[in-house]
Amino acid sequence: MNTKFRYFFLLSAMLLFLAAGCGLMKEKTSTPEKAPAGEGTKVTAAELIDLLSDNTITIYEYGDTAIIEMYANGKMYAVKSKTEKNEGKWSTENDKLCLQFKRWGFGDEICYDVFRKGEEYNLYTSTGLKSSYFTITHGVKRGQAGKNTAAAQKQPAKRAATTSPDVVVEEPVAPPVSAPAIQETYQSSTPQAASRDLGMIYRGMSQNCPGCNLQGANLAEASLLRANLAGANLSNANMVKANLKWANLKGANLTNADLSGANLAGADLSGANLERADLTGANLEQANLKGATINTAIGLDLKKAIR
After folding, report:
1. Residue-level pLDDT at 112
2. Domains along the chain?
3. Helix (H) or strand (E) run with residue 137 in it
4. pTM of full prediction above 0.70
């Protein structure tokens, strides 16, 4: 009798445990998941309009700083230095902040998810890559817009054109003040390591892959806009017609890489090793080649590059 009672008790306990577990799993799955990109709290379009209209933001990116006055009528006025000034438009679309400058960033439009963490607002690209962050100061100096226009901006529809704070660092800048150190010693080139790191390139936070071993990788025609591949080993990689616009390739090993026809406009190639790399037909407009090893590169056109 005691034995049967013990079995019955154990069976009952197991059933109760499983029932409780299912309840927990159900509760967990019903909980809204956090946004895939960013730490902190997602800022909505309505909140962005209230926060930014007729106020000033300071954007920090790769050790550079730009001060931008955000007018309620959707216009912007930016200052990066006494000689680097620019104008543009800002808007919101689908709870994203969109910025567009007349001269910086080739005039392209880019929208960002904004996450607030303390007093900082982090900007994330559509790939989940953190681009930069900004802080807000009340008011504007130039006073081009009044609060009476802000109400018209409070709508989910897109207001003005767009662009990205990445443009803030498009023009020649001094070496970053607090940029993370780049490892000059590259990983051993094993098929397993290269396959693993190539996989990172195509995952959610994929384009943030500094120091990755991508030796011999096939990245032909790959979309790597604003990818962070600083210090990566890309020797012998096939990057024909790849879109590397604004990519961070600082200190990368690009020896023997095939970059023919690649779009490297605005890319940071400072300190990169381009020995015997094929750059025939590559777009190097405003690409930063300061300190790069280029003496044996093939088809290199430096007319519009920064040196």
Report:
1. 87
2. 41-169 (2.40.128), 187-307 (2.160.20.80)
3. strand 130-137
4. no
